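Methods — Computational structure assignment.
A single polypeptide chain was analysed. Its primary sequence is given first, followed by the predicted tertiary structure written as structure tokens.
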Amino acid sequence: MNSRIFNVLEYNKIIEMLNAQAASSLGKQRTSILKPSTELEAIIQLQEETDEAANVLRLKGNVPLGGIFDIKPSIKRTVIGGILNPHECLDVASTVYGGKQLKSFIEDMEEPELPILRELISQIMPLNDLERQIKSCIDDHGHVMDGASDKLRTIRSKIRTSESRLRDKLDSYTKTKSKMLSDSIVTIRNDRYVLPVKQEYRGAIGGIVHDQSASGATLFIEPQSVVDLNNQLQEARVQETNEIERILGELSQKIATDESYLYQNVEALAQIDFMFARAKLGHVMRASMPKMNDQGIIKMKQARHPLIPKEEVVPNDVEIGEDYTAIVITGPNTGGKTVTLKMVGLCTLMAQSGLQIPALDGCEMAVFSNVFADIGDEQSIEQSLSTFSSHMTNIVSILNHVDNETLVLFDELGAGTDPQEGAALAMSILDQVVSRGARIIATTHYPELKAYGYNRKDAVNASVEFNVETLSPTYRLLIGVPGRSNAFEISRRLGLSETVIETAKSHIGTDSKSVENMIASLEESRRGAERDYQRAEQVLTEAEELKRDLEKQWSQLESKREELYKKAEVKAEKALQKAREEAELIVSELRSVKNQANLKEHEWIEARKMFDEAQPKLTKKREEKVKEVDTKRDLQAGDEVKLLTLNQNGTIIDKVSDKEFQVQIGAMKVKVKRKDLQFLKREEPQVVKPMTTVKGSAYQVKTELDLRGERFEDALHRLEKYVDDALLAGYPNVSIIHGKGTGALRTGVQSFAKKHRQIESYRFGGMNEGGSGVTILEFR
């Protein structure tokens, strides 16, 4: 891509803004050399990287990229045997630590999917040993610590001792011979401790002169008595320097050993910083990721020029490449046409560089092998006015390189020469570029080019809207509407006589008037359509808001219904608990009368089972109301009733009092209050005739026979009669209770069962059926 376009479209200013977003020198190196790519796959990869980083910024706000340095030169020096200084070693440790922090930050993120970043951080090696070794030797200020080695600790202890002795010795001079000193202090010259002695007392102090003041009145003398102490101190300092050099040499060797890992870390960190710099710039510009194509199609919604302040820029919709390949923006020079031209070109360069563009989501940009521009220098305060010759030289160069993969931007095409010749030349140039399949956007003052968009199927007219009321442009691009001069309207607003204006109109040809009227009509239609669109947008917004409100209310209704269900369940559970308590009370009463009622064990078990099953079923559906109990109806023995507390049917045996009855429920007899009984039906009394009846299945026969305490012969007689009744009742099996005792009754029952033709088999009862004290008869 030609380098001239970067200056013309001010792409370099975008790079400066991008460079400011990089967090480290590693990122700045990559941002400063960023150039648009011409490979579709490479550009898509760049855009996906930027979008992934933008998603992280959106979720987390920032990323830990601090403490990262370009340590590649330092690594290279260690490989060839060089020794790094403490600050260089510290930069290596800081970069290793920064890489670990970033790696941990990305790994801890659960959403969204970050395939590119996760691949990059997988290349970052922790190198904990190297970091720990460097930081154990060098503090945060870049000083080698005493603990770096035992020898260094010993040497520095010796240095501190020598310095203390020296100061004590020289302090005694400042106290006893202060008159001979120009100042009562101890100072240093040539790394040796000295005293500032007056010139006239030079011989009285004695020693080595290391320096003198500018006036010569003061000599800096090292007394002879401290020469040996100074020598010892210098010797210790040489040892300290040598030990520090040895320690730094070991650290440098360790860094050289991890050379490949460190280079790998640096490359990954540089790429990550580069990604986030692009994402941060997009955030600053309120930009979005464009969809890239190689079909020459550009679709930008509410696109803004990235170098114009957000509070001043006017967003515009621009489309080219599908229905038409050329846009001709006509009309007066209002300052908006060139901005649109530069905006399209600059956004194209940004998109091909992997940068997001300042437009709404869903925008689409094309990949061009070249972008050419001939933009009037009068629009730039940085350059002087161009001439027609310079324009044509540039246009000739462009035409020599135009193909179907280029974007061409012409500003004031054909300007600077005779209007008729310039217009004809402009149309010819446009035809030439369009015929080669390039995408072209051109601006012009010539009214002759207004018809160009109507006469060419691949071209469309456009203009920049101008508000005659305020005498200022709105900077809104109108695709499909050619521009008009507005000279008469502007002149009228400025106070020009109506007579002069009407005279001027008479000099305009009929065709020109028709075109101007057509343009005015188009503009009015456009404004009407936009007003309708805005109203439709408002209605849509209100409808969506109403839909959200209804959904919210429905959700609240659902929540309220669930809450009512839960309350109903709680209420039902309380009723169930009350029923259980009453059942337990009844069971307790049965226990107390068990012996008097001669209640057998299996009857007790059956009664308890009935209570366990007598539980109301909970349901969220609304049930029919229970019929109101008729408490005024007289109940009598034999009436079939429903015990409401247990939801069981039974028969009244006896009336205990006006408010209490004894009820038979299965094998149980219980006392129940009148308010808990619901009348079901009453059996009409029948005249009993003395005749033989056959007992059928409706005959009430118990499922068991208790023979305990009976004489053997009586027991067998009862057994025979009971089996006949049970067969008539249709029972599949019955229980014969004979007890254990001597076993004679048990043997007699089983012997009877063997001989009876309707008894298929018999067995002892189970653990919960009475065991060997019961025989179960199975009928055929």
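Note: The radius of gyration is 53 Å.
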